[in-house]
Amino acid sequence: MNDKTLWRRILDNRALMMLLIVLVSLLIGLVIYLLPVPEGRYMPLAELSSEFCSDHEGLRITTEGYLHAPEVMTGCVRRTGDTTCVILLTANPDGGSPAIRAAIEVGERRNQMEALPGVYTSDDLAFRDSSGQVLGQTDRVRVTGILDNTNCRISIKAINSVP
User: Fold this and answer.
1) Which residues contact 157 (CB under 8 A, 6 or more apart)?
2) Residue 94: φ, ψ to 5°
3) pLDDT by residue (tens digit) across 95-152?
4) Are 92 and 68 in contact (CB under 8 A)?
5) How many degrees, rounded to 5, is the angle at CA 76 between CA 75 and CA 81?
6) Of the candidates 101, 159, 155, which has an alpha carbon nearest to the alpha carbon of residue 134?
7) CA 134, CA 59: separation in Å to the nearest integer?
8) Residue by residue, what is the 3-state secondary structure of the chain?
9) CA 144 from centroid of its chain's CA atoms
10) Which of 116, 147, 110, 152 is nearest to 132 (CA)?
């Protein structure tokens, strides 16, 4: 049997063809998942004013700082099985300003925040960077995300540790 005959049999068999399509789709999805998120336009945290956010909604940006959980977590939304919470990205490890709100998915995968207990302290905040390493509020990070004009917020797409 030559190669042309083998491919002709695969193409003529619907089940094999569907299996081939599914396998190729899964492979493409895996490659996309493993590719790093491209960095956006670098913006120092201090320059992310509400005016800048309203003028640049939807812009992919990269900035650096420290992720902090607010004293009371009121900004969590659950949609289609995923939960996203709003935390703070601050310029200083002890919090304070300048700061910007940051929307982050809750989960145990890369670029997600681990779920906080009902009563928590700032030390309970844990999140994973792009490599899967668990970090906390005292770790300086480079965040890439999309600017949202809603209270000048960045929707986090990637977190990278800054040495």
Assistant:
1) 37, 60, 111, 144, 145, 146
2) -95, 10
3) 777 788 899 999 999 999 999 888 888 889 999 999 999 999 999 999 999 988 777 8
4) no
5) 160
6) 159
7) 27
8) CCHHHHHHHHHHCHHHHHHHHHHHHHHHHHHHHHCCCCCCEECCHHHCCHHHHHHCCCCEEEEEEEEECCCCCCCEEEECCEEEEEEEEECCCCCCCCEEEEEEEECCCCCCECCCCCCCCHHHCEEECCCCCEEECCCCEEEEEEEECCCCEEEEEEEEECC
9) 8
10) 110
Phi, psi (rounded to 5 degrees) for 14? -60, -45
Q: What angle do CA 67, 128, 36 make, to 5 degrees?
A: 105
pTM: 0.73
* Contact criterion met (CB below 8 Å) for 84 and 157: no
Which amino acid does the sequence have at 39? E
AA identity, residue 14 = R
Q: How many residues does the chain have?
A: 163
